[in-house]
Write a structure and sequence with these properties.
The complex is a heterodimer of chains A (about 300) and B (about 400).
Chain A (H helix, E strand, L loop, with lengths): L1 H23 L7 E7 L10 E7 L4 E6 L4 E6 L4 E5 L8 E6 L5 E5 L4 E6 L4 E3 L4 E2 L2 E2 L2 E7 L2 E6 L4 E5 L5 E5 L8 E6 L5 E5 L4 E5 L5 E6 L7 E6 L5 E5 L4 E5 L5 E5 L1 E2 L5 E2 L2 E6 L5 E5 L4 E6 L1
Parallel strand pairs in A: 24-25
Antiparallel strand pairs in A: 1-28, 2-3, 3-4, 4-5, 6-7, 7-8, 8-9, 10-11, 12-13, 13-14, 14-15, 16-17, 17-18, 18-19, 20-21, 21-22, 22-23, 26-27, 27-28
Chain B lengths: L1 H25 L1 H4 L9 E2 L1 H4 L22 H6 L3 H6 L4 E2 L1 H4 L11 E2 L9 H8 L9 E2 L1 H4 L11 E2 L9 H6 L4 H7 L18 E2 L8 E2 L1 H5 L14 H5 L3 H7 L3 E2 L17 E2 L9 H6 L3 H8 L6 H5 L10 E2 L11 H4 L3 H5 L5 E5 L6 E2 L33
Antiparallel strand pairs in B: 1-3, 2-5, 4-6, 7-9, 8-10, 11-12
Classes of the chains: A mainly beta (about 300), B mainly alpha (about 400).
Amino acid sequence: MKFVNKILGLAALLTVANFIGVSTSYAADPWAWRATLEGTSSGQAMSMPTALYVDVERQRYYVIDSGGNRLLSFSREGGFLHTFTAEGKLQIPYDMVRDEKDLLWVIEKGRNSLTSVDVKSKEITLHTLKEGDRTLVPDRMDYKNGQFYILDKASGEIAVIDGNLSVNKWISCPECVSGIVDFKLTNDGRLWALDQLGKKVVQFDSGGALTKSFAVGLQVEFPVSLAIGPADNAYVLDRHKGNIAVFDAQGEFKYAFLGKGWSRGELYYPIEILFDPWGGLCVVEEGSGRVEIFGR
Amino acid sequence: MLHYHRMVVIFWLAVVLPGAAAAAENICFDCHDKGSFSGNIVHQPLADGQCKACHNPHVAHFKGLLEKEGADLCYACHGKEKEKFKEGLVHQPVRGGKCLACHEPHASANSGLLKSNLDKICFSCHDKLPQKYGHTHSPFAKGQCFACHRPHQAAYGQLLKDEPDKICQSCHKPQDLQQGHADYPGQLRNCLSCHNPHGSERKGIVRNVLHAPYAKGCKDCHDQKGTQGNTQSCLRCHEKVATEMHARHSHLTGKGGNKCVDCHSPHAADEKNLLKGSQVEVCRACHRDTMARYADKLYKHPEAKAGTCTSCHEVHGSNRVAMLRGDGNAICTQCHETQGKFTHPVGEKILDARTGQMVTCISCHLPMGSDFKNELIYSGSKDLCVQCHKRY
């Protein structure tokens, strides 16, 4: 009987220890591969894609195939639709948006231009962005309420630009070690940005004032892009580790998932991360020439 | 009565046993010449006759009958240092656990059990550093490396003790500095932008190579308030660099109005590209994690080992991933001509089954460093091949 009691006691102890162990470990990764956007259906694999634009109205994905100097569109389900090459005129396209007039605005690194493309009339217009004698070097972009948000690589600041392409406001991060490397706008007007060398996520209110920041350096080596999920969780893409680190709204590390590699569900030189409106977490992989979409 | 005897025995053991142990340690010196273990400074365990603190007298796994290997042995006592030496930038021998690169384990004539004079130890590895200049900075000439550097780890680049300007001002009084720089526009700062802290052939240890506008004066780049020109003010003259910057990836990055001065000195430097330090030092200033990740890999490409990053990477801008100078084949076959002609099929017509991308040398090799021979990404015996050849 004594022996049985001992075993029962030990079992109870192990159960408690196990419970403590589980409750103190990090949350598990809930993400699973859902689809891959790839260029082979167009007859040519993508070469160094750099960005994804999600057209909510048309329920389409647009992938900027930077090395192929073209834009590829895909259905919401991930099926390939069209290739747009602008008759071979694009020079290192890098990022894009579509405005309410149906114009595509493409950042072209090769010509340092915010290029407007009217697909119907096939009219392409180059715009070099300037403020006084300062020439902007557009890198990342977004569009909201008739305003362009352009990350100026030359200063690491975000220029808020009106429809006439005049700079209305600058959003800068005084506490960042390096300039901003990526940003995302949320529906409530806040802007989240990433300080690459400072390894920090920063948040600005709709007026452009810095309201919050937290460090991600213990988990991240080379942050290159961020996405903001439900409950303000920040998803930070690590280009060198090939993974995604997730932080809650207070900046507490929750978990990391994916890893460096070439197979499905692995990332090789990823460059951008964003949420689509259908719950998908999209990762643009420059190194593997594809966009992988993950879902819960 | 029994209680009394027990007390006596305990007292006897307490007094006699430590002495007996020390006496037992002294047995070591019956064979090992004690004179070889003497010096001004003797390592505490040895001074206490505790040879067994490090050595096993009978058998051990490691050479010298040591209980543990490398730094693990030292950290068994110096536990606090183990944690401290993980912070910030860590000196390579420390990171590699090679305490004996600088320290003697038993005894030494030098404090800190150093193997020899400080400068001799430092120059034994830093052998490319000139030991003497036309004008040599006094602490450097005296071999006082620790006047500016820390030996194990530091929060600042080049293992500096503090921010460079603060180190300079710890000896050079501000009023003296101001007198010597009467024409300096604005507040004196960034001493290393003009001066080599070890020495140079120029008076005032101004670095040997001067930026042409600086040689003429300050006005080409600074306004009357001393404000420096922005990136574009550099690129107006350096047009080729401006073109290189218009690429998919560029080093036109970071905070502030002038990105060029992150890597280049606008005033004076030790070599013609006006870099702020050696290539690897300049790159490490931002890519510290990358360097650390590959630092202790078993196999490293000679160029990565030598720190000549520009052999493979562009420095201003590149349309390639990782800012490579060419695609993953062209860049390797610059040197590895034979492998370019006779190897696993590579090139535009050979596609990686996993991604549909062109198979290149870097599909299998990781030149920055790997734990597998020939800098392979996975073990070459099988693991590497089955990545693509699933039925192998």
